[in-house]
Amino acid sequence: MKVFYAILRNVIKRFLVFIDPLRIPMLIPVMGFFMIISNGAFAQKALPIDTIKPNKGDPNSQVKKINEVKAKLLSDSTDGQPKKHPLIDTTFRNKYGDLLNDDIKFNPKYPFWKPAVEVLGVNVFTNALDRALGEDFSHVGPTSWKYNLNKGWEWDSDRFGINFIGHPYTGSMYFNAARSQGYNYFQSIPFAVGGSLMWEYFGETTRPSYNDVINTPLNGAFLGEIFYRLSSNILDDRTRGANRVFREVAAGLIDPVRGLNRLLQGKSFRHTTTEVYQKEPLNVTLFAGVHKINDANSTVFGVGPTEVLLNVQLDYGNPFEDIYRKPFDFFRLRTEFSFGSGRKLLDNLTGYGILVGNNTNIGKLSIMYGAFQYDDYWDNKTFELGALGFGGGVFTKYPISKDVMWYTNAHFALVPLAGNSTRFGPDTTQVRDYTYNDGLEAKIESTINFGKYASASFVYYYFLMHTYVGQAGNNNISILKPRVTFRLAENLSLGFEHFIYYDDRYLKSLPVGIHSVRTEQKIFLSWFLEDPQRKGRYN
User: What letter does residue 165 receive in the DSSP assignment?
Assistant: First the structure.
């Protein structure tokens, strides 16, 4: 094809020498036609890297072989940067050979009314579930609708977990009603807003609340896009049999609305020859161990209740691959559960996702910078803090030596809505005992990896909270988490983390500030599950 391409260009060049220059404009369409043919012929020299051949053996075996070839061809050569390969067109695929966007041929955009009806269905289902559970607020009708429309808005008194996890999860369902029907991130957010407004006026008897109409769609979009991306990394329409069933069920559990839509759209049973979903590297780290919570203001280690911890960290996307980034092409999500004392199981959920960003290099220093959305949720025996943030972040990678790598990321964000506990200790009430706030947040995370042998990490979060609903004042919260890990076996490490929580509260009604500190210690085993086709530690 290269020979054909060269001959064609030479013929056109010689032809133009002998023609009348005045006729050149007339020949442009003809030239374009021949160039399209030649480029098309040249582009067909190789099939896409992820294509299976129908009726040429078991599709699952073909997919497995394709993944093995990709892992071999595209394995990291420079600690997180995949090798280049001539089969990959980086305008359509990342360097790992995966699509940069869902294939619209197999994922069309459905009419507006379909996700809108599904949003209504989510609210009807949620209301019916609440009624089955005996919740008084679920008994809605014309009287409550008229009351809500006439009475106006308020800051509600729901429990902390309801407002800062329950409502955002419902918002993720509204969001994915559109996202799973061909709408992009920004196009899906209005459906989350609409679903929230519909619920506030017509889904419950209590008055519409300001905090819900902020938290539900915005943090709902945060969780919804993460659920959509994770399910895409699981799904593979080329597979069949038990493999396919497992993928469909797992993806449906992560993103139930998408799972339902796949059934309704026939996608659960569709078979393709190529990959049709955007995928990015996904690494999972599991932590399990013992969590010692020291008594209030105690500086003595090991004094207080002991719990079992389970932590899951998801790292999606390579921040140091130079690609055009859409929202959430890179994100990190941490979720920690504690078992052993008290009714609270979800200790914290924190994360961030990129909205827009770019990459650059300064010598050996690799940099990604951009705008991010942040979600922080802490609900444990020490404190309650929920914060929605938007701001900027910078990620860096610097090779100190061949085996020692230093990763750092720093963030600064505005917090339009936060919830902050008004007392020191666990919330055992069934009503609101927290204030509504705005403010600022800053974060820094730094890790040095000593090859495969050990790592040392430093994590610091700072929140400046100004109360606008509740007892007037300001609150300064600092969270410090130094950590060390030592490798025991392949991808298995033993770690220790010291957790320090500082709270400096200044209320206008009190002449002096209220200061408290709480420490915790965690000993754990961590298991790093590396994406087999997209290897590399990225941060």
Answer: I
